[in-house]
Specification:
This protein is mainly alpha-helical. It has ten helices and six strands, in the order E-E-E-E-H-H-H-H-H-H-E-E-H-H-H-H. The strands form three sheets. Strands 1-2 form a two-stranded antiparallel sheet.
């Protein structure tokens, strides 16, 4: 048996039509393909239709959670190669368009994983990390030298229980980051860069706190080392240091 679609006017088998109980024959007036095309057009051109479609999908998924999981699992297996190809192309495009941002996100992910394993406190977002990097203006906080590649260092090392939060992050060059490694920052700074390095770090910590309070309304959850550093080494916070190339 067959039926004629009122949309494309083709005579098709009954299996090509969806169920419509209100119809005399119990089938839709238009075929599946025409119905699918109409739904896609309606979804693309009507905001209300999109919202209704999303809401119906959510309601169906909540009523049929086990069936939904099976569909997702089958789709994942069926389209695994396509998904890997899309992700590979997407990541390559992101790396071409904004390589530094991609590297930053990868570093953040690595830090979060390391912090989870070490059970360290604090949280950090990509936006917060990017703000910290921008505050350096391309200059290493530790040595005061300009650098093409600014990394983010944890002032108090994670292995020593330091937070991964924004209040423990300092932008520095790769050389200083690698040299400091897991050393206590205040002691390493005093030995490697002297009073000038300590003063730059103290000034940046204050600059960072002011920026986060203004941008995000955040105050440090963990105490910083500025008081101890000033007391131990006899220095004061200075917004601008005389004869210092960093110009904090």
């Amino acid at each position: 048996m067959s039926k004629t679609c009122t949309k494309c006017t083709k005579e098709l088998p009954l299996s090509c039509f969806t169920v419509r109980r209100a119809s005399p024959d119990g089938l839709s007036y238009i075929c599946r393909q025409c119905g699918l095309a109409a739904n896609k057009h309606r979804y693309a051109t009507s905001a209300s239709s999109r919202e209704k479609s999303k809401q119906r999908a959510k309601e169906w998924a909540s009523r049929n959670s086990s069936k939904r999981k099976q569909i997702v699992r089958r789709s994942g297996i069926k389209n695994a190669d396509k998904r890997r190809k899309r992700m590979k192309e997407y990541n390559a495009r992101r790396m071409r368009e904004n390589p530094e941002h991609v590297r930053l996100l990868l570093r953040i992910s690595a830090v979060r994983r390391k912090a989870r394993l070490a059970k360290c406190p604090g949280t950090i977002t990509a936006e917060q990390t990017m703000l910290i990097v921008s505050l350096a203006d391309g200059v290493c906080v530790y040595c005061g030298e300009a650098s093409q590649k600014i990394t983010v260092d944890h002032f108090d090392p994670i292995v020593s229980g330091g937070s991964i939060g924004w209040e423990n992050l300092v932008p520095c060059c790769q050389t200083c980051n690698s040299s400091k490694c897991d050393s206590e920052c205040a002691d390493w700074l005093a030995e490697r860069h002297g009073i000038a390095g300590l003063a730059r770090a103290v000034a940046f910590i204050k600059k960072r706190a002011d920026a986060f309070e203004e941008r995000f309304g955040l105050l440090p959850e963990f105490p910083d080392d500025t008081e101890w550093m000033r007391e131990e080494h006899g220095i004061e916070i200075r917004e601008t240091m005389a004869n210092d190339p960093a110009g904090w």
